[in-house]
């Protein structure tokens, strides 16, 4: 594992990018995207996986009614397009940059297969990561289908606590420093930005949370709300 390049402070697992490998460096470049640029569309050929070096990417699809459904918003150090590794030939989702300075490391499927064949531990981590993403997506879809908006928000905050939160011993609250805008959060829980703002203020009035642009303080009682 000595030759692998790891991102610092990634929030899922440390994964390599071929740009730092002597075998791939000469023919490999990072791709840069502006806000609203698409990395790929539904039905595009699935021949690469992608690692976010900087910025944010929205993953989603369009319903039969033409409405956008957001499956995930990913940030630095996260992988997407990974179902290409499982033999998917066409994309069943789109990937779009939602930041003006998104920088992405594309990794060809054959390159990934080589790297996975050469390192059993790395291969195990990739498959474990894919399973984790499927499980989280299934949970999110169940929330969208069967829970009211306030419950979806509270459970989303619980996920944020797991991913970005840390305990503050002095106050007994969970402090979340996260990368999402209110628009991002609204998309992820399937509501409008005005409705999200109303719900956040409602939770604030109930003394369950405090929030600012990039930080949310969650009191433990918030997760006991039915």
UniProtKB/TrEMBL annotation:
This protein's UniProt keywords: DNA-binding, Transcription, Transcription regulation
CDD domains per record: CAP_ED, HTH_CRP
GO molecular function: DNA binding; DNA-binding transcription factor activity
Domain of life, source organism: Bacteria
Domain HTH crp-type: 147-222
The keyword Cell membrane appears for this protein: no
Coiled-coil region list: none
Gene Ontology cellular-component terms listed: cytosol
Pfam families attached to this UniProt entry: cNMP_binding, HTH_Crp_2
Annotated Cyclic nucleotide-binding domain residues: 12-91
Name of the molecule in the record: Crp/Fnr family transcriptional regulator
Species of provenance: Snuella sedimenti
């Amino acid at each position: 594992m000595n030759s692998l390049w790891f991102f610092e402070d990634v929030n899922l697992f440390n994964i390599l990018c071929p740009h730092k490998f002597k075998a791939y460096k000469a023919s490999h470049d990072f791709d840069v995207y502006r806000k609203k640029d698409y990395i790929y569309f539904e039905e595009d050929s699935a021949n690469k996986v992608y690692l976010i070096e900087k910025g944010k990417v929205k993953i989603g699809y369009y319903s039969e009614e033409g409405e956008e459904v957001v499956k995930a918003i990913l940030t630095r150090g996260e992988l997407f397009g990974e179902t290409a590794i499982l033999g998917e030939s066409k994309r069943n989702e789109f990937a779009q940059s939602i930041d003006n300075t998104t920088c992405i490391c594309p990794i060809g499927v054959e390159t990934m297969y080589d790297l996975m064949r050469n390192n059993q531990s790395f291969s195990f981590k990739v498959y474990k990561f894919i399973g984790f993403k499927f499980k989280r997506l299934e949970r999110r879809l169940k929330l969208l289908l069967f829970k009211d908006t306030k419950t979806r928000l509270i459970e989303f905050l619980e996920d944020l606590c797991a991913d970005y939160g840390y305990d503050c011993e002095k106050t007994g609250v969970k402090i979340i420093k996260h990368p999402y805008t209110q628009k991002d959060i609204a998309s992820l829980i399937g509501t409008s930005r005005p409705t999200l703002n109303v719900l956040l203020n409602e939770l604030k009035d109930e003394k369950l949370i405090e929030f600012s642009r990039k930080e949310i303080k969650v009191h433990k009682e918030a997760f006991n709300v039915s």
